[in-house]
Design a protein that fits this description.
Helices cover 46% and strands 25% of the residues. It is of the alpha+beta class. Helix 4 packs across helix 5, helix 6 crosses helix 8 and helix 7 packs across helix 8. The protein starts with a helix and ends with a strand.
C-alpha cells in the first residue's frame, strides 16, 4: 500500500486514502489478458509497477495502440466505464505488473469532488492523442523497416531490456502486419547491421 500511496502522491491525500480503501492491488503475471474486447468495465486500472499494452482489433488483425506505464491509466477503459459501454480495446500485461484496480462506481463522484483527479485522465487523453498522431505519421511516411526498428527501440526503452524476446508472429500482431513481412524486414535490418537476432532475443546494435 505504501508503494501505491507514493505513486498517487500527485492527488490530494484524502482522495488517495479513499482510493486505497475502496480499491484492490493485484500482481499480474506477464502475458495475462486483463481486459477483453466487448467486456463491460468494472474496475479502472492504474499501473503501479510494470507495463501493459493496449490493442484494438480490425478485421481479425490486432494493432498495438499504446503502452500503459507506471502512474498511468487507460483512457479507453476510462471512457467505457463512465458510459457503461463495452470496451473497444483489449489489454495484456507486457511484463509482471502491479495494478491498482478502482471500482468504477466511485469514479463519477470523485471526479466531481476532486478536480485534480480529472487531470489524470485529461493528461492521458492528451498523451494518447499525440501518440495517435505520431502513429498515423509513421504509417503514412515510414517504410516497414523504419517502423519495425522504432518499435523495437521503444520496447527496449520501456522494458529496460537490451534484448526483446518475442516471436515474429507476436511482433507482427503488434504492428498489424503479417509474420512473413516481419521475418523479411528483420533479416534486412540484420544484414544492414542495425539489429541482431540470437537465442536471447532481438537486440539493437546500431542506431538508425
Amino acid at each position: 500500500m505504501n508503494f501505491a500511496k507514493q505513486a498517487l502522491s500527485f492527488l490530494q491525500p484524502d482522495l488517495v486514502d479513499k482510493i486505497l480503501k475502496e480499491s484492490t492491488i493485484q500482481e499480474i503475471p506477464k502475458g495475462t489478458q486483463i481486459l477483453r474486447e466487448e467486456q463491460y468495465v468494472k474496475v479502472l486500472p492504474i499501473v503501479i509497477d510494470g507495463l501493459v499494452k493496449v490493442y484494438s482489433r480490425f478485421e481479425e488483425k490486432d494493432l498495438l495502440l499504446y503502452y500503459i506505464e507506471p502512474v498511468q491509466s487507460c483512457i479507453m477503459t476510462f471512457y467505457a466505464s463512465l458510459k457503461n459501454t463495452p470496451s473497444k480495446v483489449f489489454a495484456i500485461t507486457e511484463e509482471n505488473s502491479k495494478l491498482l484496480l478502482i471500482p468504477v462506481q466511485f469514479i463519477p463522484k470523485w471526479l466531481k469532488e476532486y478536480p485534480n483527479f480529472n487531470e489524470l485522465f485529461y493528461d492521458q487523453f492528451n498523451l494518447r492523442y499525440l501518440e495517435l498522431l505520431d502513429t498515423i505519421g509513421h504509417l503514412l511516411v515510414e517504410k516497414m523497416d523504419k517502423r519495425l526498428y522504432n518499435h523495437l527501440k521503444k520496447k527496449t526503452e520501456l522494458t529496460k531490456n537490451d534484448s526483446i524476446k518475442m516471436s515474429h508472429n507476436q511482433i507482427a500482431n503488434e504492428l498489424g502486419t503479417a509474420r512473413e513481412v516481419i521475418s523479411r524486414v528483420l533479416k534486412k535490418l540484420e544484414t544492414e547491421g542495425k539489429v541482431e537476432q540470437t537465442s536471447e532475443g532481438i537486440k539493437i546494435i546500431n542506431q538508425w
